[in-house]
Amino acid sequence: MRKAIFGLAASAMALTWGATPAAADPAAVKQAVAADYDSHLEDLFLHFHANPELSFLETATAARMAAELRAAGLEVTEGVGGTGVVGMVRNGDGPLILLRADMDGLPLPEKTGLDYASTATQVGQDGQEYPVMHACGHDVHITSMVGTARRLMATRDQWSGTLMFVVQPAEERVGGAAAMLEDGLYDRFGTPDYALAFHVASILPAGKIRPRKASSIPARIRSTSWSPGWARTGPAPMRAAIRSISPRRSSPRCNRSSAARWSRCHPP
Ligand SMILES: [Zn+2]
Fold first, then answer.
1. What is the full per-residue pLDDT of the chain (268 aa) written as tens digits?
2. Distance 58 CA to ligand 1 centre (A)
3. In angstroms, rounded to a whole number, what is the distance separating the alpha carbons of residues 148 and 138?
4. CATH homologous superfamily, domain 2-265
5. How many angstroms is it from 246 CA to the middle of ligand 1?
6. Residues 6+ apart with CB under 8 A from 68
7. Where are the domains of the chain?
8. CA of 254 to the centre of ligand 1 (A)
9. What is the Å distance from ligand 1's center to 137 Cα?
10. Cα(136) to centroid(ligand 1), Å
């Protein structure tokens, strides 16, 4: 998670700076992320993991995210497309960059045996009660978003531009993004020049990041695959950015090319 926070923060800085964030001293950024993780983000992750909520019903999660982003100094709007949250940072001239995290859990019991395992249940939109678990890792995504926001706000003298943090409901039911767009996301907050997002993937070793082509979104980021060589030779402003981008299609649980995997992650 620390790597994801560093990657997202570095990516946004790269895009708003027009250069790689190397001059921002990556070691110092990593150290700051690690310190923030120990003092704040780990507890936040444990809270989110133990308190998952179903798609379109993420009211407590959204409220906590709004509070976290507001505390970080963002201008926060709640209730966008249902439970969606938008946090804006206007920091001078530069591109508008969207950073997105999904926040819903799945109707599954957690059987990990972890001491922070979810025991949550929730009545779904169909009126039935379900066990709920962050089985798709969205607790990591939203915690990373908070860490990214805190890092970028702490270093706002090192970049300029506008950031739009989007906390998206109902990724599992595949309706939350559309709901936010239909509620005027881009009309109300601006159309992004770039969009950054990632999804955890259990198929990858810990600490590894693998960008994939994101052909279904109108973004300028079009990396086709990750390789160390690409990171060294890709377009200069995007090298660091690409290091952190791992769109949801790279998730082994949620890969749309595999019906079995897709249905396992996204039950009806
Ligand atoms: Zn997911």
1. 776 776 777 777 666 765 444 456 788 888 999 999 999 999 999 999 999 999 999 999 999 999 999 999 999 999 999 999 999 999 999 999 999 999 999 999 999 999 999 999 999 999 999 999 999 999 999 999 999 999 999 999 999 999 999 999 999 998 999 999 999 999 999 999 999 998 998 888 888 888 766 544 443 333 323 333 333 333 333 334 433 333 333 333 343 434 444 444 444 3
2. 14
3. 15
4. Zn peptidases (3.40.630.10)
5. 12
6. 44, 146, 149
7. 2-265
8. 6
9. 6
10. 4
